[in-house]
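Quick sanity check, ATP-binding cassette domain-containing protein:
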Amino acid sequence: MQVKLKGLGKRYNYEWIFRNLTYTFEAGTAYAVLGHNGSGKSTLLTIMAGHNLASEGQLSYRLDGKTVEHDHVYRYLSLTAPYLELVEEFTLLEMLDFHTRFKPLRHQLSTLALIDRMGLQRSKHKFVKDFSSGMKQRLKLGLAIYSDSSLLLLDEPTTNLDQEGVAWYQEHVAQNKEGRLIIVGSNIHHEYSFCDEQLRISDYHVAPRGR
Ligand SMILES: Nc1ncnc2c1ncn2[C@@H]1O[C@H](COP(=O)(O)OP(=O)(O)OP(=O)(O)O)[C@@H](O)[C@H]1O
C-alpha cells in the first residue's frame, strides 16, 4: 500500500495540531512518525486509518497500482494503539475466532499457531479481562502484525511490555515487514529502530501567532 498526503492539516477546535503535511509513504517501507507527547502522532495515524477526519488536505491510497477508495481502506489495514480496546468478555480463543472472522491472518496462519507465536499457549481459555497489561499488549500486537494487511499502523507498540516483550515485538515485526507499509508512532528508539525512514511531526506544527 502507498499512502500520499497532500497539504494535510488537523485542527481540534481552534488549535492546529499540524498543517501543510505533504508526504508519500511508499509500499514495502517502514516509517517512524516521531514527536514529543501531544505532538500529533496518534492523530496522524488515526486519520490514515480512517478513524478520524483531516481538517484540510487530501489523502490517497494505492495498492498494486490501483486506487483504493477511502471506504475500503479498512480492509487492507491493521492498527494497534493504546486507546483501542479488546473484548474483555472473550477468552483468548474466542477473541481470535472473532477477530479472524473479519480479518484473516497472514499466510493462512491458524489461530492456534498465532497463540504459539504470541507465547500465550497457557492462556487459551483465559478471559481477556484476566490478562496482565503486558499480555493484552502482546495480544493486540499479535492481532495487528499477523493480520493479512498491507498497511500496518503501530501506535506506541511497546506500551506495557517488559524487556522480553520488547524483544518479542522486535523479532515478530521484523519477520513480518516484507512487502508492507509499516508506520510506527513513537518516541522510543527500540520501537522504531527497524524503520527505514523518519517523519518528524513537529516539522508541520504551526507557530502560535506573535512568535
Ligand atoms: N478528540 C480531541 N479533541 C481535542 N483535542 C484533541 C483530541 N485528540 C487529541 N487532541 C489534542 O491533539 C494534540 C495531539 O494529540 P495526539 O494524541 O495526536 O499526540 P501524540 O503525539 O500521539 O501524543 P502521545 O505521545 O502523548 O501519545 C494534543 O494536544 C491533544 O490534546
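Posting the structure with no commentary besides this: The radius of gyration is 17 Å.
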